[in-house]
Amino acid sequence: MAAPPKKPFALRLEPSLHAAIERAAAAEFRSVNAEIEVLLREALARRGIRVAAPEQRPRGRPPKDETDMPQV
Hints:
- By secondary structure, the chain is mainly alpha-helical.
- The chain has helices at 15-27, 32-46.
- The chain contains two helices and no strands.
């Protein structure tokens, strides 16, 4: 099942802020985009603004189709 599309938009950041987000993302093994999403969710939560949890996508390889399985 495909994840719902994300809304793209341009975001202009000061270079030093972007570098700090890159370092934080690397420390958490996330992309810069994912780190920004986490930071925004945390900031909104501190302000008491509820945001629906992101849809959890399955990780790893997709299961093989029954038709692709060798017959034993």
